[in-house]
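sorry for the late reply, my laptop died twice this morning and i had to redo everyting from scratch. anyway the thing you sent over, i finally got around to it. pasting the sequence first so we're on the same page, its 137 residues, then the predicted structure underneath. double check i copied it right bc i was rushing
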Amino acid sequence: MSTGQLLSPSDIDRLARTSTLIRLVMNADGQVLDMGRAVRLATKPQRKAVYARYSTCWIDGCPLPATMCQIDHADNWTDGGLTNLNLLGPACQFHNRDRYRHPHRYQRHPQGKDRWAFTYTPRPQHHPPQPRRQRPP
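ok and here's the structure:
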């Protein structure tokens, strides 16, 4: 315990049965950078780190500055994505929402050791078939 108090075997057994372990990664200043599944939203230190790592939205060609973007998960949170710095990046509001509505339009690729970018392929423009013109008799 943080008080230095020794635990009895029964206390240790109870804690082992009722507790959950969470992996926590901190920077040199003790700020949490990896939260795993403990929280969905990025922490303030994670946001600062994302802004330092990316200058713009992480969708190729999107010029919106990272500081004006939302913090997004590389792996969708609802699909088990982690709130860890190496899996977070800036996404403008349009790309953040669109990527979850239409994941097939986005291809993730590495950008350096532990950074990501996405290539956006818009929906092809399908034109409805034109009705055939009837020949005059």
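The helical segments are 9-18, 44-53, 93-101.
thats about all i looked at so far, will dig more tmrw
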